[in-house]
Design goal:
single chain; 238 residues; 9 helices; Cthe-2314-like HEPN domain-containing protein; HEPN_Cthe2314
Length: 238
C-alpha cells in the first residue's frame, strides 16, 4: 500500500520475508483443515486462524514502515533542521513519522506473537503478569520446561539482535511513556551546542537498527511457525 502511494512498484516477497509468510500460510491451511474435519465446536482453531492472519498483517505493516522510513531518509541531505528548506523539512518529518511507527511496530508484532504462543502452548503467562509482553512469554518456556527446543531457538534469536533491539526498546519506551524521542535528542544536543545549530542524529544508523528489529521479527515468526508446522506434521503422522 505505501509503495503505491510513494510511486514505487509493489513489493515482491523474497528471502526471509517470503519464507516467513509461507510458513504462516501453511499454518493457516493446517488450521482450516482441522476446522473442516472436526468442525471446531470450541472455535479455538478458528480463533487461532484469525490471529495468524493478524500476524501476517502486522509483519506486512512493519516492513512497509521500514521501507517508507528508508525512502524518506534518502531525501534528507541537510545536517540540521534549521538549514532545511520547507520541502526537505517535510520529508524529514515523514521520515521521523515512519521511523517511529516502525520501532513501535517491532514490539507490537512481537507482543501479538506472544499472545498466540501463550494460547497455543498453554503457557499461563497471565498468571505471572496480566498484561504480558512477548519477552515475558519467552521466559515461560524455560520456567515451565516446555517446548525447550523452540524456547532455546527464540532466546538465541533475541540474543543475536540484543544491541539493536535494546536501542529500539529505549526509543519505544521514551516515545510512549515520556516524550517524543526526537525531542529528547534535541534537548541533549541543544545542551551540547548551546546556541549553535542542532545537528541531526545518524539517520543511517537509525535505519540500520530498525532493519535489525524487522529482521529479528521475521526470524522469530519464521522459527515459531516452522516449529508449529513440523510438530503438527509429526502428530498427524502418528
Amino acid at each position: 500500500m505505501l509503495r503505491s502511494l510513494l510511486g514505487e512498484p509493489p513489493r515482491q516477497n523474497e528471502g526471509r520475508l517470503a519464507e516467513t509468510i509461507d510458513a504462516m500460510v501453511q499454518t493457516i491451511k493446517l488450521l482450516q483443515k482441522e476446522i473442516k474435519e472436526h468442525q471446531d465446536p470450541s472455535h479455538d482453531f478458528r480463533k487461532l486462524e484469525i490471529w495468524v492472519h493478524g500476524l501476517i498483517s502486522s509483519l506486512d505493516e512493519l516492513e512497509q514502515s521500514l521501507f517508507a522510513a528508508a525512502f524518506f531518509r534518502k531525501k534528507v541531505r541537510t545536517e540540521s533542521v534549521e538549514d532545511m528548506d520547507p520541502v526537505e523539512r517535510s520529508d524529514y518529518a515523514r521520515y521521523v513519522y515512519f521511523y517511529k511507527d516502525g520501532f513501535i511496530r517491532v514490539f507490537s508484532a512481537l507482543d501479538k506473537l506472544g499472545t498466540v504462543l501463550n494460547e497455543l502452548f498453554d503457557l499461563k503467562t497471565s498468571k505471572i503478569k496480566m498484561h504480558f509482553s512477548y519477552f515475558t512469554v519467552l521466559r515461560q518456556f524455560a520456567y515451565l520446561k516446555t517446548h525447550t527446543e523452540l524456547g532455546n531457538q527464540l532466546i538465541a534469536i533475541k540474543e543475536t539482535y540484543r544491541e539493536s533491539l535494546g536501542v529500539l526498546r529505549r526509543r519505544r519506551n521514551t516515545e510512549i511513556h515520556y516524550m517524543n524521542s526526537e525531542m529528547k535528542d534535541d534537548l541533549w544536543q541543544r545542551h551540547q551546542a548551546l546556541f549553535g545549530k542542532v545537528a541531526l542524529e545518524d539517520l543511517d544508523q537509525h535505519i540500520r537498527e530498525l532493519e535489525q528489529g524487522y529482521r529479528m521479527v521475521c526470524d522469530t515468526y519464521f522459527t515459531v511457525f516452522d516449529y508449529i508446522n513440523q510438530r503438527w506434521k509429526k502428530i498427524a503422522a502418528v
